[in-house]
Amino acid sequence: MSAKRFQSLKAIRVAGYLLPPLGLILLWRSSLVGWGRKVFGSIFLLIFTLLYLCAATAFLYYVMGIDLIEWRGGYTPVLTLSKTLPNYAKLEEDRAKRAHEDAQAAALKGDIYWTAFRGPNRDGHYDGRPILTNWPKEGLRLEWRQPVGGGYSSFSVAGGRAFTIEQRRDYEAVTAYAITDGRELWTNGWPDRFFEAIGGEGPRATPTYDDGRLYAMGGTGDLRCLEADSGKVIWRRNIIADARADVPTYGASVSPLIVNEEIIVLPGGTNGQSVAALNKLTGAPIWQSQSERQAYTSPMLVTLAGQQQLLVVSTRSVMGLAPEDGRLLWHQPWIVDNDNAIAQPVMLGPNRFLLSAGYGKGCTAYELSQTNGRFFAVALWHNSYLKNKFSSSVFFQGCIYGLDDETLTCLDAETGERKWREGHYGYGQLLLARDQLVILSASGELALVKASPSQYQELARFQAIQGKTWNQPAISDGKIFVRNSVEMACFAIGE
Prior knowledge:
Blueprint (H helix, E strand, L loop, with lengths): L2 H16 L1 H10 L5 H29 L5 E2 L7 E2 L8 H12 L25 E2 L14 E7 L8 E3 L2 E8 L2 E8 L5 E8 L3 E2 L3 E2 L6 E3 L2 E5 L4 E6 L5 E6 H4 L14 E3 L2 E4 L9 E5 L5 E5 L10 E5 L2 E7 L3 E5 L6 E6 L12 E4 L2 E6 L4 E10 L2 E10 L10 E3 L2 E6 L2 E6 L5 E7 L4 E5 L2 E5 L4 E6 L7 E6 L10 E3 L2 E5 L3 E6 L3
Parallel strand pairs: 3-31
Antiparallel strand pairs: 1-2, 4-37, 5-6, 6-7, 7-8, 9-10, 11-12, 12-13, 13-14, 15-16, 16-17, 17-18, 19-20, 20-21, 21-22, 23-24, 24-25, 25-26, 27-28, 28-29, 29-30, 31-32, 32-33, 33-34, 35-36, 36-37
Helix pairs in contact: 1-2, 2-3
């Protein structure tokens, strides 16, 4: 081998070890290396580049304490220099500034309508005053915007207040804001911090409002009943500890459900305490039922086959329970990889409902019938056209609208036939407002899409908040409330 060729190959090797992309450039520019070696060397350098990036990322994270990875809903994380993390200093500065303004808020008034997760019926339907369908080019009128703590809770809105739960450093805090200007009216916090690597820190479950009281649950199962006007604790208990259950991998995410004098929760215990009813005024246990682990789907009160019942999704099945005593009426297997049953069931009629999940699961429409007091659930159709990962779909005039992973999709509810699949919104969330779909994308954009099976038609889109956004929006009093783990905002959406 000539000295010139040896020096050339040595330079390529050194460059490849120290800076693989430079080695790749030198390899292909060299006239002393044959095509076969160039191809083989390129494969080696690409593999080495991947190992180099993994090592560099691990060094930054474990040695330097710098985390450049963020999960945004796909199967792999992304590298980013701008993670969606709460700015606690900015949050505290904002609240301190507001504290020097009017200490007492005027008496608040407003509809008592959007009182629970995804609306009064938990179906994602907004049937209040008509919304604007001709949005200005710059977007809806901003009412207010401010920093917020971490977590994935949405809002319940009642009596002029918007309620949520957020992470404030090492405390979980239930918070109440005036819907008129975003003024923080009260907080109720306690030392706790749920964290997992993919979703990050903060509580997950949306508070529920009922008759002057607010029911909020933290990421490890701490359930509190608070006075909605003041935030004063009426009662508290940890439902997961009571049931001797385990905190789910991604945190306790189930929003409490009020049924008459009961509050329905899902501790997930495997010893007959998977589903529990408590006295809503005192927190005293009323009944416990089933022995399956808790998933991430909130219970719903529905009427199927002429019977009012609790529709509950666990990590193993979907089931109907009698609200008065938790008696099992029927059940069907429903298993999602890694126990990730997240999306809410969608009611398709008086005896039909839909379940959907990501992770390759797809969607299934079920029909429930009743004969001589016995219930029978059968699958009508199943396909992979709609894979709700951690958003939920809505039903309108015979069609199902939802995010198939990241793409908006319309299905015929009778047959499962796909009408269209268009429009990229990431792993966002959507609501139905009369005959319009209001979508909050995974990057914080608000969009308006016509709910029509004939074609996909996006009417408007604008940037509402910044950063990764997995939180459900809420609509009440002609306003739409959005948040993520960095900021919250309110826009005028009513006509």
